Amino acid sequence: MNKIPLLDLKAQYQSIKEEIQEAIDRVFASGQYILGPEVSQLEEEIAQYIGTDYAIAVANGSDALTLVLKAWDIGAGDEIITSPYTFFASAECASQVGAIPVFIDIDPVTYCLDVGKIVQAITPKTKAIIPVHIFGQACEMDKIMELAHKHKLLVLEDACQAIGGKYKGKKLGSLGHASAFSFFPTKNLGCYGDGGIITTNDKELAEKLKILRVHGSNPKYYHSLFGFNSRLDAMQAAMLQVKLPYLDTWNNKRRYNASLYNKLITNPKVIKPQEAEYAESVYHLYMIQVKNRDSFRTYMEKKGIATGIYYPVPLHLQEVYQDLGYKEGDLPICEQIASRAVAIPLYPELTEDQIKYIAESINAWQ
Ligand SMILES: *Cc1c(COP(=O)(O)O)cnc(C)c1O
């Protein structure tokens, strides 16, 4: 058996190569390379797919988060409640606008924000909650929206890892006041470079975001705000239009592969991921937990199977957040999971033979 990578982006490209080449040719011949009709078309398609009134394409998922906070006038001294167990950008966006991320512990089953811990973190300075649909799993959105309503907070879903995922049958990214998606190549819907998009039903917000992404100008060269240079390339938009119709098939394949792992992995030393009863996860990553992670990874490497750690350092313990005053032990569930969690290969193109080999290898690990 050849070495099995965590993710194989080349295999996916091969399966849609002709269509991607056509899209590239179309954009190159058009003479319009940034924003324009390709991007508007993608925005319409994504809004329709997610089920929101608006979608605003930007340069990447991190900007998608930051621009929303900026548009909401969140800034110095404001607090934003978010997860400590996520990619850095989920909290960095708060810091980028001068606000303070407030980390609360996660749910041991879903690895998402523990909604039972939100209320005690709310202060008069709290302005927003950023629930992160981590690894494709869904946060408990009804409870989050209920709390947000009660305490007059805004909710920005970080759906960067969860495009196509569902909560109680509704698409993630359609439940908060605004949502951020990333098209980073490794995401479930990835482009061939950087890209991101914001979804929302709020017309005023959508209009402001379109101004913010072009230096706060409307029309061009007339600036009413300080904004950003955060635009999506036409080429990325054209290629994403090719890929979007395949997304559900790819996500279903991920779910099927995850179901095979769930069935085939029987080693009692391994904790498998669990889908919340309200969720339809899109398994951005298939995360297992093992106590002896280093030895597990060495063993898997010898078997020719790649593994990955997401994320080695919880955000509240990152060097850059030392000033916030968190210490080890403050968020024990997150810290324990971060020390045990490891991703095994999961992508649509993984074959059943590969999955069986990986599961058998894991079952033989002592
Ligand atoms: C990838 C990711 C981001 C950032 O997206 P980029 O496109 O890389 O800027 C933000 N949050 C989460 C949870 C992510 O996984």
- The end-to-end distance, rounded to whole angstroms, is 22 Å
* Count of distinct strands: 12
* Helix and strand run: HHEHEHEEHEEEEEHHHEEHHEH
Task: Find the structural class using helix and strand composition.
Answer: alpha/beta
Radius of gyration over C-alpha positions, nearest whole angstrom:
21 Å
What gross morphology would you assign? globular
Largest sheet: 7 strands, mixed
| Strand adjacency order, main sheet | 1-9-8-5-4-2-3
Q: Residue-averaged pLDDT, rounded?
A: 97
How many helices? The count is 11
Give the low-confidence spans. none
Beta percentage is 5-15%
Helix content: 25-40%
What small ligands are held by the chains?
pyridoxal-5'-phosphate
Provide an overview of this structure.
- By secondary structure, this protein is α/β, with parallel strands linked by helices.
- It contains 11 helices and 12 strands.
- It has helices at 9-30, 37-50, 61-71, 89-96, 141-151, 203-212, 234-243, 247-264, 293-302, 332-340, 352-363; strands spanning 54-58, 79-82, 100-103, 126-130, 154-158, 166-167, 170-171, 178-182, 196-200, 279-280, 286-289, 341-344.
- The strands form 3 sheets. The chain has a 7-stranded mixed β-sheet, sandwiched between helices. The chain has a 3-stranded antiparallel β-sheet with strand order 7-6-10, with no helix packed on it.
- Helix 2 runs parallel beside helix 7.
- The longest helix has 22 residues, at 9-30.
- The radius of gyration is 21 Å and the shape is globular.
- Residues 60-62, 86-87, 89-90, 132, 158, 160-161, 182, 184, 194, 196 line the site of pyridoxal-5'-phosphate.
